Amino acid sequence: MYFKDEDFEKSIKILHQKKNSCGIDNVFINQFDEFWQFNKDTIISQINSNAYKPSAVMLEEIVTKTGKKRLISRYTCTDRVILDILKRRLVPIFDKTFSDYSYAYRENKGVYEAVKNAAKLIESGKKYVAEIDIKDFFENINLQRLEHYLALKISDKDMNQLLHRYLYIFTVVDDKKTRKTQGIIQGSSLSPLFSNVYMADFDKYLESKYSFCRFSDNINIYCASEEEAYKAFNDVTHWLQGKLGLKYNHDKSGVYPSLDRRYLGYDFKWQRGTNTVSVCRHNYEKPNYFGSWHCSAIQKIDRNYHIINDGVLNKKDFTILIENDEHKMYIPIETCTSINIYSNVILGSSFLQFINSRGLNVNIFDKYGNFIGSFHSEHHYKRSVTLLKQASIYNDERVRLMICVKIETASLHNQRENLRYFNKHRPSGTLKSAIEYMSNCIVEMKQSKSVNQLLTIEARAKQKYLQTFDEMISDDRFKFDKRTRRPPLNEVNAMISFGNTFIYRRIANEIYRTALDIRIGFVHAANSRSESLNLDIAEIFKPIIVDRTIFTVIHNLQINNRDHFEKEDNGGIYLNNAGKRIFIRELEYKLSSKISIDGQKLTYDKLMKAEVYKIVKFVQDNEKYKPFKYT
């Protein structure tokens, strides 16, 4: 096995055609050329000396438009390129050994050829079909057996060892690192080839006994009679289980009349006049999906619902029902702590009584994402002692200044970390200057003599930080020159406003579960404003949660200015429903991601909750307050 620089050129071109993304090393596709220039000699040398070890693969669970959960893989760009080179070397070796009736993941094969052969078999008198759907196909491939099949055709020991490392690669799920011992990861260039290698002997067995079509994990065996089809079904499922360790999906497998079955999205129809079988694509009705998320179903840690579409909320037995003219959706009370409404929703009296009895919060936003108001149960209460202590701290200039300095220096520290991240990956004089400026402002803040002086320094630092936004975003589609509110005048401002409001409400929900009074903050003046304390705590987390989510959705091309925003008559630009869905999903994903704090893995959501309880301990017990700082 020998790799040259030229081997990588074609694969790198293919990589650049993909959606901008990164693996565990945080090197995005649009940054890979620079990375490759610095590192290619080392990497090629490692491969040629059989010393290269693939990076761990990040696995993330997503929910598809049809509501199904799917695991997606994020290889590093380097491994994606290497895997593509390996594929181009291995396909010529193995493809010629595959059955002509294996149609998936092969050049000059595909859905059209599979459907065409199926129609030909039906036309020849095969009136019944034994359909077999392999259960969790990729996940249940035996790696030792697959390695054996690979070694039969590959004599190069170094090649086999490199393939071994990719088969038994480390994966990372929710910061938990484990080595693969069963199944192959979907999403790499080699996975489709590996699946066909694993099934090659099976295909040869079918070819010797039956008329069939196999498309990945879908196997159709066409028979002249129902009895023959059942015999084939039993024979083949036993072969799969005994020889390959693969089970079939009972709900998707069985014996049926051939003409009654849809195959790979196509319907078959017998033409009486010509005695032939015609084929036509099935006309799927596009379903309308109810625009809401149960975040725990995606990340399994959060308990917040976000409702985008119009409807009526009511109590139904011991759960919550939201419905409109087209859809119904149940929200299990056991998995819910708050409901966030971004649309025109009618709240039934039984619903309000029910959530009051269960201690749930409801937050209501207008179509632009601005917070309108909230409903909190009567179980939320204030303790007079805590209220008096909170007010006493606010009125004590020395103590108030002390906690304000801690909050604002933590906020600037986290803003500076964003600058440092981008300066590390895209060094810039502007970013370097801003980092130095922020550092000086932190020193000045610690020397402040009054809250007003502190806030003046904070305003200057925030202005400098926002002046670098355009450089951190680095995308001509999303230009940012200054912060504008009510209305936001461009797409970036729209996301900042929406994200900030989102964080304010998340922190407010937690404050309402304590004895703290949300009206009395420390940094933000407690005057006519109905809420202040949540705004204070949000200052710490906005750079890490909101700003980084904005960078993510732009850099990963998840949001564009054509499809995900709307412009109002007043010149304001806001996220539309599609944009809100994506942005909320990414905010929730960010909140559910974990970092290591004092050796313990914690989500940002838990860190925000912990921040609230730090304030509680500071107010009630005079414990030293140490705000969260990203490191």
UniProtKB/TrEMBL annotation:
EC number(s) reported in the record: 3.1.-.-
Pfam families linked: Cas_Cas1, RVT_1
CDD domains with a match to the protein in the record: RT_G2_intron
Sites where the protein binds Mn(2+): 458, 524, 539
Stretches assigned to the Reverse transcriptase domain: 41-268
GO biological process: defense response to virus; maintenance of CRISPR repeat elements
SUPFAM superfamilies: DNA/RNA polymerases
Coiled-coil segments: none
One term of GO molecular function: DNA binding
Taxonomy, superkingdom: Bacteria
Reported cofactor(s): Mg(2+); Mn(2+)
Alphabetized UniProt keyword annotations: Antiviral defense, DNA-binding, Endonuclease, Hydrolase, Magnesium, Manganese, Metal-binding, Nuclease
Cited function: CRISPR (clustered regularly interspaced short palindromic repeat), is an adaptive immune system that provides protection against mobile genetic elements (viruses, transposable elements and conjugative plasmids). CRISPR clusters contain spacers, sequences complementary to antecedent mobile elements, and target invading nucleic acids. CRISPR clusters are transcribed and processed into CRISPR RNA (crRNA). Acts as a dsDNA endonuclease. Involved in the integration of spacer DNA into the CRISPR cassette.
Protein family membership: Belongs to the CRISPR-associated endonuclease Cas1 family.
Name of protein: CRISPR-associated endonuclease Cas1
Organism listed in the record: Agathobacter rectalis
Designated gene of the protein: cas1
